[in-house]
Each structure stands twice: as structure tokens, then as C-alpha cells.
Design a protein that fits this description.
alpha+beta, 2 domains, eight-stranded antiparallel β-sheet
């Protein structure tokens, strides 16, 4: 049985976490918009770099340090930065660079950057609003601003741009690995405040309704993202020790939303299962289902654990329930076929064939598709 993959795509709103099942490999997501640029901001570093490597290139005299939840933010002021903007680099508690924010309170004219302007012209703004930035060189009090998003398979780039259609001016750019994307939107209130109230400058008008405020504890969101990054191998190898630690901390920090809390227990269960602690895994998945019943991914993963613990009948029942709830749930059909192959080869053959029909054309399933074709051939002989 295998609980290491899910086949559903997810958006970025809940950091690739709540819309998908729980797999330990990065989920498949829809094609991203174009991301070509001739404005290079991450010049001397890259996401996932260690803090030790970053500090070897940026001695303490060049930056200031401040707490960022359980991690740390290192800030290079405008007068010392290569980008001529304020550069902030965010490291998790394990010393891994998970996000960066570049802020230009006076605005960065994008006219010299034709490639990036072309990219931005092809993106549909995810948000448009008016923003007061006191220090803008254009001298305009209130600017029409847009938030645009692009990226690659594991990271997201967001641009906050004013006067997008007339004379695009970059106000902020953020880069992050996807589990943390929620925490790096330039529309977060604390990031907008860096534009409205830059150090040493006169503050812009603070519009109370502008900016995202977390309804859940920041520490819970941060630890959940840390768990996702470790469990889904966003920065190197999978690390289930870190994942289990992070999910436990996210739960202890006090999620109030049932969906978040249920998914944290779900993900913790998967981490325990990967570490071979099946009873702990079962307990967490049952807690998840008690909070949020009838979630196909949780039922499928619990079915796998029940079979590993020796209760095959319960495992089969859980796979069946997952399929009833989501008939095109390929992984549950695969697991059901594998579990019934010895006792009900006709049913196994049917489930294998259904699995193939669902996953046709999905490159990430190539290895399992090849295995299933071999099993179908054997069952038909």
C-alpha cells in the first residue's frame, strides 16, 4: 500500500495543503503563468540556502536581525543593498531560507526591464486596489496597484506593481517556496506597512481595510508550512523528523479553524507513518476524521495503516468509502486493487483498469502505471 502520492491539483491559497490529500511528494499543480524576467533580485543567494552560507556572504555589519516567529529575518537596508531596495531574508528555525521580500518605498521604474514588463502584461492580477505610498517618486498620493503572481514547480514570485498599465512601478517583490506562500503575500498588512511607513520616512495613509491579517496564530501557520516543506522535500531530502516536530508545534500553537486543525492532524499522521510509528499515525488520522469526517485522502491513508496493522477488512472498507466519496480517486483505487489481488483478482483487475483510465497522461504516475500494466497482464493470464 502506498500513501506517498496524491493526484489532485491544489491552489496556493492554503499553501498547497488543505486542497490536497496528504502525500509526501509534492502535489501536481496546474501550469503556472510565465515567469521570465530581466530584473534579478535574488542576486547572491537562492531559496533553500542555509543561513550559514548566507552569512558567509553577508557579514553581520551589512544587515540587521530580528525574530520572525520561530525563525529569523535578516534585513539589508536600501543604502547597502545590491537591489537599491530594502532586502529582507526569512529563515526558518532550521536555518533554511524560505522566503525573501524586496521593498521599494520610492518605487522602482520597470521601463528598463522589458522582459519582466512582458511577463507582467501576460498575468491577470489576483488583486487590484488603491495604495497610498508617501515616498513614491511619481509624487502621486494614491496609486492604483495590482498584485501579480507567477513561479515554478516549487516556488512562487509575487509582484506588487503600481500604474501597471501606464508606467509600471515595482513596489514590492516576494519569493518563497510554496508551503510558505500565504506568509509572503505583499498584501499582508505588515508588508504594506513597510511601504506606507518606511524607516525614517513619513507614513502614507493607513487604510484599515487593506492588507491580510491572519485569523489563525502565526506560529501555527508558520509551523504547518515548515512541516509541509520538510515532508514534501521542497529543500533537499524529505525529513519526517522535522515534519513531525513542526506539525505537533502547529497543533500546540492553537489552530482555531477546524479545517486547518484537522489537516494538521492528518499531516502529522502521515509523518508518523513514514517514521514507522503506525499506532501514532492511526491515532492522528482518527483525530482528523473526528474533526472533519469523510475526507477521501484521510480515509485512504487510514486504510493503508489499518492493513499494515493487520486489519485488512477495515482497510478495504476505508478504501471503498474513499472511492464512493470520490469515484475518480486513483490512488484509493490502486490501493484497493493491490489489497484485493490475492483474494478477489476479478475486482483487482477492474480497479487497476479504472486506475489507468484516471491517470492516463500524468507523467508523475509513470512508474506506478508501468507496475499496474504488469499486474493487469499477470491477472489476465
Amino acid at each position: 500500500m502506498n500513501i506517498s502520492r496524491t493526484l489532485t491539483s491544489s491552489g496556493l491559497v492554503l499553501a498547497l495543503s488543505l486542497a490536497v490529500g496528504c502525500g509526501s511528494d509534492a502535489p501536481v499543480r496546474p501550469p503556472l503563468p510565465p515567469s521570465e524576467t530581466d530584473l534579478v533580485l535574488l542576486v547572491s543567494t537562492a531559496l533553500c540556502e542555509s543561513k550559514a552560507d548566507f552569512l558567509s556572504k553577508h557579514p553581520s555589519s551589512t544587515h540587521t536581525a530580528s525574530d520572525w516567529g520561530s525563525g529569523q529575518e535578516l534585513t539589508i537596508p536600501t543604502e547597502r543593498s545590491a537591489s537599491h531596495g530594502e532586502e529582507s531574508y526569512f529563515f526558518d528555525e532550521d536555518g533554511v531560507l524560505v522566503g525573501a521580500l524586496f521593498t521599494f518605498p520610492r518605487g522602482l521604474d520597470l521601463r528598463p526591464y522589458s522582459v519582466l514588463r512582458h511577463t507582467l502584461s501576460r498575468l491577470k492580477p489576483s488583486l487590484e486596489f488603491y495604495l497610498n505610498v508617501a515616498q513614491l517618486e511619481t509624487g502621486t498620493n494614491m496609486e492604483s496597484s495590482a498584485l501579480l503572481e507567477t513561479g515554478d514547480e516549487k516556488s512562487t514570485t509575487q509582484y506588487l506593481v503600481s500604474s501597471l498599465r501606464e508606467r509600471p512601478i515595482l513596489l514590492q517583490a516576494s519569493f518563497t517556496i510554496d508551503p510558505y506562500v500565504r506568509l509572503f503575500s505583499p498584501y499582508r498588512r505588515e508588508f504594506l506597512d513597510r511601504l506606507r511607513n518606511p524607516s525614517g520616512g513619513e507614513g502614507g495613509q493607513n487604510i484599515e481595510s487593506q492588507g491580510i491579517d491572519d485569523k489563525e496564530p502565526f506560529s501555527s501557520l508558520q509551523q504547518f508550512a515548515r512541516g509541509q516543506a520538510a515532508q514534501l522535500a521542497y529543500c533537499g531530502e524529505k525529513n519526517y523528523d522535522i515534519a513531525a516536530d513542526a506539525y505537533q508545534k502547529s497543533i500546540a500553537s492553537g489552530f482555531t479553524n477546524t479545517v486547518w486543525l484537522a489537516e494538521a492532524h492528518h499531516k502529522l499522521g502521515v509523518a508518523w507513518q513514514a517514521k514507522g510509528q503506525r499506532e501514532k499515525a492511526k491515532a492522528e488520522l482518527l483525530r482528523s476524521l473526528a474533526l472533519r469526517p469523510n475526507i477521501p485522502e484521510v480515509l485512504n491513508n487510514l486504510g493503508t495503516i489499518e492493513i499494515q496493522l493487520g486489519d485488512k477488512a477495515e482497510g478495504l472498507s476505508l478504501f471503498e468509502k474513499a472511492i464512493v466519496l470520490r469515484p475518480n480517486y486513483a490512488l484509493a483505487r490502486y490501493n484497493l486493487a493491490e489489497a484485493t489481488e490475492a483474494t478477489n483478482p476479478k475486482r483487482a483487475l477492474s480497479e487497476y483498469e479504472t486506475y489507468l483510465a484516471i491517470v492516463e497522461g500524468i507523467p508523475e504516475e509513470a512508474a506506478r502505471i508501468a507496475h499496474v500494466k504488469e499486474r493487469i497482464k499477470a491477472l489476465k493470464q
